[in-house]
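Hi there. Long-time user, first ticket. I'm pasting a complex I've been working with (about 394 residues overall). I'd like to know whether the download I got is complete or cut off, because the file seemed smaller than I expected. Thanks.
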Amino acid sequence: MTGAAFDPATVTANWGFPTGVRVGPGRLAELPELCRELGFARPLLVTDPGVRDLPMLDGALASLRDAGLDTEVFADIRGNPTGANVDAGVAAFRDGGHDSVIAFGGGSALDAAKAVALMAGQERPIWDFEDVGDNYRRADAEAIAPCIAIPTTAGTGSEVGRASVITNEDSHRKMIIFHPRMLPRAVILDPETTVGLPPHITAATGMDAFSHCFEAWCAPGFHPMADGIALRGLHLIADALPRACADGGDIEARTQMLAAASMGSTAFQKGLGAVHAISHPVGALYHTHHGLTNAVVLPYVMRFNQAAIAPRMGPVAQALGLADTSFGAVFDWVLRFRERLGIPQALAELGVDTSRAGEIGRLGEIDPPAASNPVPVTAADLAEVFTNAVEGRL
Ligand SMILES: [Fe+2]
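Hi, the file is complete. Here it is re-exported in full:
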């Protein structure tokens, strides 16, 4: 048990870190008031076609319009969003004379919406703002539109992040686009928005949050604040994810998972690692689900990083409730947890083959998360770990 059992009906919390977060069931109803507080007059709600068709979106739109907020919807965001998706959203923003963005949906919608807000008033192409060095200083910070984020999955944590992952169609790279002001001004974590997610999406997105916490904890560098958040996130996910999968209507588990997803994203400002460095090019080339790809790849990367991370597994074991604090115990737990959630053992089961291993290694090596892997990784290392993950060689 988490030690945090509660009556979800009593949860009405306001968090100021890392941004303003309104947590609790039913708080989506506060969206019009939040828009007004932030001075939004004409927001563009950015989402994906699946969420567009949900009654909760109609309800949110009706409440915004009833409150006199002239809201339009841009729902043409696809999974693994591309630069063209963002461009289309920016065109809708400019054509509609909008002043703000409401990011509403899963990771792809949130990332694309934040990128639309970034690009609303920029002259340069989005790729100029890749998260390398101080590229973000090229952007006109004053021209970035303010954004409210409302996640409808618990995984990416993009709602509290300062970056978006956007696929460059020309280079086939998932590029991390970063600006400090991409951090949404406010977030609503309403567990009722996630109750309709089917178990396999709940599991896959939840494992994205798990991999964020795990990779952040293992990343080198001094960041005790991120470390603490990562460990607590692992603890919450270990407890709540199986329950959210077993009973989608479990509001308590859904709340814990939304919290854990935001925590994972907060923690990984410390860094990620080879799980994401492999998952990004695999997603760009094979269009696999990000969280599911991470979930499959995680133990193969743990094995590769074993010597470096074994001394750090004690607190992780403790967070997971294990008496045995060895690397082996944590590794076995991860394998069992994946199995329990129905996560495949190998990337081959996701339709991925080894024919592009060299390319994946080269793309992974220049993916920013590779730089914070606990041990230095080369393109050849990443290609080898990827190949093991495709073939199921642990
Ligand atoms: Fe991720």
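A couple of notes from our side: The beta strands are 13-15, 20-23, 43-46, 72-74, 100-105, 147-151, 163-168, 173-178, 186-189. The chain is about 45% helix and 10% strand.
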